[in-house]
Amino acid sequence: MFISIILGIIVIYAIINTMVSLKYETEKEILNYHSNPASDYIRQLLGNLYVFGAYLFFNIIYIWGMGHFKLKKTQ
């Protein structure tokens, strides 16, 4: 569970960092009127980070729930 929480913090940091990068890339897109491959890559990366973050969230909830259930069962 500890590793999942640490990974969750890293994913949240990566999502924030990627959103900031996307902001600057889209500003360049507006000025150039061209599609920027970097912004497409950043959007895909952001989508993947969201999916991995959701997986980690449900993993933490599952591990916590199973630990809580086992503690209740032993008492």
Walk me through the structure.
- By secondary structure, this protein is mainly alpha-helical.
- The protein has one domain (2-74).
- 92% of the residues lie in helices and 0% in strands.
- It is rod-shaped, with a radius of gyration of 18 Å.
- The two termini are 22 Å apart.
Low-pLDDT regions: none
Radius of gyration: 18 Å
Question: Whole-number average pLDDT?
Answer: 83
Individual helix count:
2
Main beta sheet: strand number and arrangement? none
SSE string, helices as H and strands as E: HH
Beta content: under 5%
Helix content: over 70%
Total separate domains: 1
Helix/strand-derived category reads mainly alpha
Number of strands: 0
* Head-to-tail CA distance between termini: 22 Å
What's the shape? Answer: rod-shaped
Give the topology.
Blueprint: H1 2-32, H2 37-74
Brief overview, please?
The protein is mainly α and 75 residues long. Helices cover 92% and strands 0% of the residues.
